[in-house]
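Lecture 7 notes: from sequence to structure.
We start with the chain below.
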Amino acid sequence: MIDAILSRAADGERITPDEAVALYERAPLEDLGAAADAATRRRYGGEVTYNVNAHLNPTNICVVGCGFCAFAVWTEKDERAYAYSVDQLVERAGQLTSQGITELHIVGGMTKEYDLPYYEELFSELKASYPQVSLTALTAVEIDFIARVSKVSHKEALARTRAAGHDTMPGGGAEVFSKRVRTIIADRKVPSETWLEVHREAHAQGMRTNATLLFGHFETPGEQVDHMRQLRELQDDTRGFQAFIPLPFLPGNTEFAYLPGPSREEKLRTIATARLFLDNFPHIKGHWVMLGEEITSEALSYGLDDLSGTLIEERIAHATTVQTPLGLSQDRISDLVRAGGKTPVERDTLYNRVDRESVPA
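Predicted structure tokens for the same chain:
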């Protein structure tokens, strides 16, 4: 039975949630990887894409306080707290654009001072100064928060940020949709229904978004697959997702530091299962910061076709005890891809190929 499921999935046929769980739990790891790699090669040959991007995190002060997060602090009185003004962020963006980035990834803590007008001003100033740089910004959880703080609907909040220059939305804040697991790791965060609702609205407005899964803590394989099922159903309706990003849980410096985090095999099984189950998602993206460079290269044979970029100044994962660099050069990313037996291709935020000669140095 497992061989038959693998064969159908590798050929691009839709498999059921029960079949996906069976693959995760029972398929030999190498066979699972081979099927996912076949599905990926059918779409993209041996090419793996990446972009040149940088992170801007306006503040780490956050009233939500998720137990799995090592980045956020509760109050400005915490010695680790910081809060940047629009001018400070625009100035820093200028320094980053001089490194040839094509995208700014903007997420951060949630506090009432960082409301809808703040982000409208930030996006407008960034676009006025650096029109060539795409803004991938504000998770669905942040959109919901600033909408509630500013007393507007999700629809209006998105329309206003988009008018200010907001291009695409990252996939963070999804964690695991299971209510049981969310109660353990993020009991103050909005429910999964809200996350899905915000992405549905973003897609309705023509915005492309990503989706994530935080795995390797308290969830079961069945809960992982059910999370993916809900994403697949929304994608059937809207076709607005660009990529699915499996994020391995990093326990260091969190409330759950006693957990081991996912093993190499768990990482590879989750990635491969995602590629075979999420047949309507164009890309499975590897977040090398959290996977580790060695496993990222290996996972290119288990269904990854895209990497999360150079990630200059990534702070959120690095608030844990992760040992990966704060950013990678294009040469290093290319080396990672070639080490995995694939061909690196630079892309922009919407997956168009980038001619590096046309990008300001």
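Points to note: The domain at 7-350 is CATH 3.20.20.70 (TIM Barrel). The CA atoms of residues 9 and 276 lie 5 Å apart.
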